[in-house]
Design brief:
The complex is a heterodimer of chains A (491) and B (224). Chain A is an alpha/beta fold and 491 residues long. Chain A is built from 18 helices and 18 strands. Chain A has helices spanning 2-7, 14-18, 36-46, 91-101, 119-135, 175-188, 206-215, 232-243, 266-270, 273-283, 292-304, 320-332, 342-349, 372-382, 399-407, 418-432, 450-465, 474-490; strands at 22-26, 52-56, 62-63, 66-67, 81-84, 105-108, 137-139, 145-147, 165-172, 192-197, 221-226, 248-252, 287-289, 313-317, 363-364, 390-394, 436-439, 470-471. In chain A, strands 8-10-9-11-12-13 form a 6-stranded mixed beta sheet, sandwiched between helices. Chain A has a 5-stranded parallel beta sheet with strand order 2-1-5-6-7, with helices on both faces. A 5-stranded parallel beta sheet of chain A has the order 15-14-16-17-18, sandwiched between helices. Chain A is globular and about 80 Å long. Mean pLDDT of chain A is 91; it is low at 1-9. The model of chain B has no long low-confidence stretch (mean pLDDT 93). Chain B has 8 helices and 10 strands. Classes of the chains: A alpha/beta (491), B alpha+beta (224). Chains A and B meet through α8, α9 and α10 of A and β5, β6, β7, α7 and β8 of B.
Chain lengths: 491, 224
C-alpha cells in the first residue's frame, strides 16, 4: 500500500492488522477469567475468529483448550497481530517483543498511560511511541481495539457482535461508544466493515485511520466520533479529501466556546471551537450529527439508501394529523411532499378503505389495519409520480392489540400480518426502484404490553432482513434522509 | 511587505486603520478612498479631492476605539464642517491626536464583516457574517479554514442565517458575490502567507452600488 508510506515513517500492512492469520493475546490468565485479557480471548473464540490464536502468560499452563505460551518469543508461529492486556509498566517490553517477532500491529487494551496525567504514565506512553516508530503500528493504549466482522477480530466486551460484514466503518477514541454502536448496529441493520477504538492514540489515530478507511474497498460509509485531534491541518485536508469520495459522518464531542481568550479583534473573539468545527465540517462536506442515535440513523440511511439528492417523498400511514405534522417536519428538513396527480390519487383510493382515506399525499390510509396487498399497491401507484423519490410508511402495531382481544385470538402474532407486510414492501421497492423507509414507533410501552414490544422487534427484524431501513419516528426518518440528500447535493 | 515590517520595527501591536487598508488594498481588497493629514488646510484639500461628504478620524497605532473616544466625525458636507471637526479631534483633552484620516463617506445601509483568525488547531480561518454592532449581537457568522476555494467562499455566504442581506433589498442592487468571494479568498491567502498577521477585522464592510468596500479595518500583528 504505497499511500500508507506518505503518512507514516513505517510502512503499514493494514491487512495483517485487520485480517491477521495469527494473533498473540498477551495477558490471558487462567487464574482470573474476568481479566480483560481473558475476556478478549474468550470473545475471539466465541466469535469464531478466523485467526490462529496464541494466549500468552508467563505462568504458562492451559486456557480452555489452548496451550498458554510463557512469552511471545516462545510462540512456534509467525505473528501478524497482538492484543496486549498486561500491567502498564510491562507494556513497552511486551510490544517490543511483538515487534521483534515480526507483528505488523498491536492493540493495547491496558490503561495507566497518558490519560492518568501522572509522569510515570506519560513516560510509558512515550516509550510506546518510540517502539512504534521502530516498526510496529500501535492501536491504543487505553482502548477496546478493533472489531472486524470479516476476520472475527472483536473487542473485549464483544463476544456477541455480528459476523456479518457491511459498508459502515466507525472510528473513535472511545471504546465504550464503539461497543455501543456495534450493539446498536446489530438490531438496527447497520453492518460494519471495521470499528476501531484507538483510546489515547499514541500512534495510529483519527487522521491516518480515516485515510486508510477512505481507501479501504470494504468501507463505503465512515462514521467518526471525535473529542480531540492531533494535527488539525492534516485532519482538515484528509477529511475534505475522503468526504469527496465517501460520506463521512462526524459526531464531535466536547464543543465548547472559546470563553475569555485574550484576543484583540472581533473575528478572533467570535471564533470559538464550536463555530469553527461546525464551519469546518460543512466546508469538508462531512455530515455533522449531534449524538449516537443520530449517527446510527445516518449510518443506516447512507448504507441502505441509493445515493441520490432526495427531495420529493410520500408519507403513508393511518391518521390525518400524522400527515399534517409530516408536512411541517419535511419542510424543515428541506424535503417536499408533492401533491399527487388526480389519476394516481384515484388509483390509490380504489385500494384503500373508504370512506376516510385520502391519497393526495400525505397518504392517509384511514385505519391502521390496511391489508399488505393494498399497501403494496399504494406504494407502487404513488411511485409512478416522477417527483416521488422515496416513500415513508408508518406502521403502528399497537392497534392490532384491540383486534386480537376482540377476535379472541391467542396472541397478537396471530392477527398481525407482519411477514406479509415486510414482503409486500420489499416487492414494492423492487418493482418501483424507489426506496421505502419504515417508521415503526412503539407508543404503548407499559409493562403489561410487553407483547407489543416483542412483535415490534420481530417486525423490525423482518424488514431489516430485507434491507429496508426501520426508524423509530418520522422525525428521525426525515432527518436521516436529509443528511443523505444534502451530502449528495453538495458532492 | 514593508507595512508589516515597519510596524513591527516600531513595536506596534496593530496597524493603524490607514495602514491596515493600505495593506489590504495590496491584495485587491476594495477600500475607502482616504489620506492622512497633519494640518487643517490639508484636510480641506483632501476632502475636496475625495469629494463630499467625508469622514474625519483620529489616526494612530493605538487608537482602535475611535467612536468611544469621540475622535470620529461623520457626514461632513463642506469646508466649514471639515475645519470644525479637525479642530475638535486634534484638541481632545485625553488623547493626543497628531494625525487625522480624511476618508470617503460610504452611506451603505448594509454592514458586513470579513476577518481572519488563527485557530489553535486548524490555523488561519476566514470569517464572514453580519457586521457593525450586529456581529456580537446576532453572532451570525461563518468560518472557513484557509485556503478557500471559490466554492467555499460562495457556500460561506450562503451559510449565515441573514444571507438575504446579499440579495436585492429595498431597491438596492444585490451584492456582487464574485467580488466578495475574491476578498474572502484573498484574506485566506494573507493568513497562509503572512505569519506575523495574527488577526484581521474588516468591520464594517459596506455595500456601495452592489460593490463591497472596506470602511474600517484592523490588522493585528504577532509581535513574536
Amino acid at each position: 500500500m504505497a499511500w500508507a508510506k506518505e503518512t507514516s515513517a513505517v510502512s503499514t500492512d493494514f491487512n495483517r492488522i485487520f485480517y491477521p492469520e495469527s494473533i498473540a493475546v498477551v495477558g490471558v490468565s487462567a487464574d482470573n477469567p474476568v481479566s480483560f485479557g481473558s475476556l478478549i480471548f474468550k470473545a475471539l473464540v466465541s466469535m469464531q475468529c478466523e485467526s490462529r490464536l496464541y494466549p500468552v502468560n508467563p505462568k504458562g499452563g492451559t486456557f480452555g483448550d489452548f496451550d498458554v505460551y510463557k512469552s511471545v518469543e516462545e510462540i512456534p508461529d509467525e505473528i501478524d497481530f497482538a492484543i496486549v492486556s498486561v500491567a502498564a509498566p510491562l507494556v513497552p517490553e511486551t510490544i517490543e517483543a511483538c515487534r521483534l517477532k515480526g507483528a505488523a500491529g498491536v492493540e493495547i487494551i491496558s490503561a495507566g498511560f497518558k490519560e492518568t496525567g501522572e509522569p510515570e504514565g506519560i513516560a510509558l506512553e512515550e516509550e510506546i511511541k518510540k517502539i512504534a516508530r521502530k516498526g510496529i503500528r500501535v492501536i491504543g493504549p487505553n482502548c477496546f481495539g478493533i472489531y472486524c466482522p470479516e476476520s472475527g477480530l472483536t473487542m473485549a466486551p464483544g463476544p456477541d457482535f455480528s459476523r456479518e460484514s457491511g459498508p459502515v466503518a466507525f472510528l473513535a477514541q472511545s471504546g465504550g461508544m464503539s461497543v455501543d454502536f456495534a450493539q446498536m448496529g446489530k438490531w438496527m441493520g447497520i453492518r460494519f466493515s471495521k470499528i476501531i477504538s484507538f483510546g489515547n492514540g499514541a500512534d495510529l489515530r483519527e487522521t491516518e485511520l480515516l485515510e486508510y478507511l477512505g481507501n479501504d474497498p470494504e468501507t463505503e460509509v465512515i462514521a467518526l466520533y471525535i473529542e480531540g485531534i492531533d494535527n488539525g491541518r492534516k485532519f482538515f485536508t484528509t477529511l475534505k479529501d475522503v468526504a469527496a469520495r465517501k460520506p463521512v459522518i462526524v459526531y464531535k464531542g466536547g464543543l465548547s466556546e472559546a470563553g475569555n481568550r485574550a484576543v484583540t479583534s472581533h473575528t478572533a473573539s467570535m471564533g470559538g471551537s464550536r463555530i469553527i468545527w461546525n464551519s469546518l465540517l460543512r466546508q469538508c462536506n462531512a455530515i455533522q450529527v449531534h449524538g449516537l442515535q443520530e449517527m446510527a440513523q445516518a449510518s443506516l440511511a447512507f448504507s441502505l439508501l441509493p445515493p441520490r439528492e432526495y427531495k420529493g417523498i410520500t408519507v403513508v400511514g393511518g391518521g390525518g394529523a400524522l400527515g399534517v405534522s409530516a408536512c411541517d417536519a419535511a419542510e424543515s428538513f428541506n424535503l417536499e411532499i408533492p401533491t399527487l396527480k388526480d389519476d394516481i390519487v384515484e388509483e390509490i383510493l380504489s385500494v384503500l378503505p373508504r370512506p376516510g382515506s385520502s391519497a393526495t399525499n400525505p397518504i392517509d390510509s384511514a385505519n391502521p389495519f390496511v391489508a399488505p396487498g393494498a399497501i403494496k399497491s399504494t406504494l407502487i401507484s404513488a411511485a409512478r409520480d416522477p417527483r416521488v423519490e422515496l416513500q415513508i410508511l408508518t406502521q403502528l402495531l399497537y392497534h392490532f392489540k384491540s383486534i386480537a382481544t376482540l377476535s379472541g385470538a391467542p396472541s397478537l402474532r396471530h392477527v398481525i400480518p407482519y411477514k406479509k407486510m415486510a414482503d409486500a414492501v420489499k416487492e414494492a421497492v423492487d418493482i418501483t426502484d424507489k426506496p421505502v423507509i419504515i417508521v415503526l414507533p412503539n407508543l404503548k410501552q407499559e409493562l403489561e404490553s410487553m407483547e407489543i414490544e416483542e412483535v415490534t422487534r420481530e417486525t423490525r427484524a423482518l424488514f431489516v432482513e430485507r434491507g429496508i431501513p426501520v426508524l423509530d419516528s418520522l422525525n428521525d426518518a426525515l432527518r436521516a434522509i436529509s443528511h443523505v440528500a444534502s451530502y449528495y447535493k453538495k458532492r | 511587505m514593508n507595512i508589516i515590517e515597519d510596524a513591527l520595527k516600531r513595536g506596534a501591536a496593530t496597524l493603524s486603520e490607514y495602514e491596515s487598508k493600505l495593506f489590504l488594498a495590496g491584495f485587491g481588497i476594495p477600500v475607502t478612498r482616504e489620506k492622512i493629514v497633519t494640518a487643517e488646510n490639508d484636510a480641506v484639500a483632501v476632502a475636496e479631492e475625495i469629494g463630499y461628504p467625508v469622514v474625519l478620524k483620529g489616526s494612530g497605532d493605538e487608537l482602535s476605539h475611535k467612536t468611544e473616544l469621540g475622535i470620529i466625525a461623520l457626514d461632513l458636507r463642506d469646508e466649514k464642517d471639515v475645519r470644525a471637526a479637525y479642530a475638535k479631534i486634534t484638541s481632545h483633552k485625553d488623547v493626543p491626536v497628531k494625525e487625522v484620516l480624511v476618508q470617503q463617506m460610504i452611506k451603505g445601509e448594509r454592514e458586513l464583516v470579513v476577518g481572519l483568525t488563527r485557530d489553535a488547531q486548524f490555523g488561519p480561518c476566514v470569517m464572514f457574517g453580519l457586521g457593525g454592532i450586529f456581529t456580537e449581537i446576532l453572532e451570525d457568522v461563518a468560518f472557513r479554514v484557509a485556503p478557500l476555494t471559490r466554492e467555499d467562499a460562495m457556500d460561506m455566504m450562503d451559510s449565515i442565517r441573514g444571507k438575504k442581506i446579499l440579495d436585492a433589498v429595498r431597491r438596492k442592487p444585490p451584492v456582487d458575490r464574485e467580488v466578495l468571494a475574491d476578498m474572502l479568498i484573498a484574506i485566506g491567502e494573507i493568513g497562509l502567507t503572512y505569519d506575523r498577521v495574527k488577526e484581521i477585522d474588516i468591520n464594517p464592510l459596506k455595500i456601495l452600488d452592489g460593490k463591497p468596500i472596506a470602511v474600517d479595518a484592523l490588522v493585528v500583528l504577532d509581535k513574536g
